[in-house]
Amino acid sequence: MTIKNSMNIDFIIVGAGPAGLTASIMAAREGFKVVVLEKGEEAGPKPRGEGMGYYSIVDDLLGKDYLPSIGIKSNGGRVWHSPGDLQITTTYREYPHYFFEWRRFIDRFVERANELGVEIILESEVIKPIEKNGLCVGVSYKDKSGNISEVHGKTIMDCSGYSGVIGRYYGVLYDEEINCPIIKCLISEANINIKETPDLNFFFIGNGDLDYAPNFPPCVAYIFPLEGKRVEVGLMLRMAQVPQMKTVKIPNNDEILKVWGNLKKYYPGFSEFFKGAKIDYEEVTWLPNARMVENIVPIPGVVLIGDSAGFVNPFGSSGLYYSMEMADFWVKNIAKKMKNEEILWSSENIEGFKSSFENYDVYKEVKGLYNLIGAFEYKIFNRLRTAEKINKKWDYISSLLKQAS
What we know:
- By secondary structure, this protein is an alpha/beta fold.
- It folds into two domains: about 5-45 and about 55-65 and about 100-175 and about 290-370, FAD/NAD(P)-binding domain (3-Layer(bba) Sandwich); about 70-100 and about 180-290, 2-Layer Sandwich (D-Amino Acid Oxidase, Chain A, domain 2).
- Helices cover about 35% and strands about 30% of the residues.
- The chain has twelve helices and 17 strands.
- The strands form three sheets. Strands 1, 2, 8, 9, 10, 11 and 17 form a seven-stranded mixed sheet that branches. A seven-stranded mixed sheet has the order 6-5-13-14-15-12-16, with helices on both faces. The protein has a three-stranded antiparallel sheet with strand order 3-7-4.
- The radius of gyration is 22 Å and the shape is globular.
C-alpha cells in the first residue's frame, strides 16, 4: 500500500450529499479544518427530483429564499390511493413545501462550502477507518488513480447514505435491517397537468395483489411533480414487516424491475402518468427507512449521520430536513467540546452527546414517525395485507393517514 499523503483534519466527512455538506458548512463556520471525501465525480452524483419543507435551516445554509427560487411550491397535499385505485384520501400539511431539481440544490451546497474553505475531494472512495487505541482517528481511501491515501482527524462523520461505508465496517446491518429497495425514475413529457395534479400521489399495493408476482412485498408507488411535465416516479418496497410475513419472497433487482415494468403499463391510475412519457433516468437503489440505527456512535471518534443512521422520514417522504438538522446538531455539540476539552471522545462525552440528541425535538419527531409507521404498516400490510381487506377498511386507514399528516 502506498500512502500518497496524510493530512490532519478536525472534521473528516464521508459523503458529499446534503448531510455531509451541511456538516462541512457548519464545522467550517465554527472555524475548524474540514475535508469531505466523495466517491462520485461530483457532489450528490445521482440525478433525481426532490422535495422538502421550507425550514429555517434551509435559509441558514443556502441563503434566504433560495429554495423558493429553484422550486415549485406545493399546497401540502398528499393523495393516497387504495389498492387498485378504488378509493382516494387527500391529506394536507400546513408548512410550505417545494419540489425541485436535485442538481441545482446540491450545487448551492457546494458553492457555500467552497466559500468557507471546505476541501471537497472527489472520486475518493473510503475503504476503511483507521483506529488507534480504541479510537477512530481517520480513514484510508482510494483516489481516481487507484492510489491509497490516509487522512487523520479528530471527528469522522459517516454521511455516505444508504451504503453506510463506516457504519457497515462496524457491524451495522444495512441490508438486513435498515435499507428498503426503491426504484427512482425521472420522466419528462409525462401525462400530467401540474395545475390539476400539484400534489404527491401514493398508490398502496398489498402483498398478493399482483397476479404476476403474488409473493412480492407490500409496496407503494409514488409520483411527485417537478415542473411542467417533468416528474419523479418510483416504487418503495416496504420491508419492515417482511420478516414476519410468510407470504413474502424477497425479490432481486431483476424481479423488482419486472414488477415495475408492469406497474408502469397497467396499474390503475398510476400507469396513466406514463402515457407518452420519456424515461430520462431509472434505477433500483435503496432507502434506509426500515428502522433507525441503534448505535450512531459505533466507536469513539465516529458519528453516523442522516441516511447512514436511518435518520429519515420513514413514511418515504424526503429525509433531507432530518439529515441536515442531525448534521447541524452533532457538529455544534462536538465543536463545543473540541474547543474546550483535550479529550474529546471520553465515555462521559459520548453519553452526553447521545443523551442530548435523544432529548432533541427533531430526534423525538423522527422516533415518533417510526413508531407511527410501525403500527400503521403492521395493521395495513401485515394484518389486512390484501387489496380486498385494505379497501374494506379504507375509512379506518384514512383516519390513520390523517393522523400521520
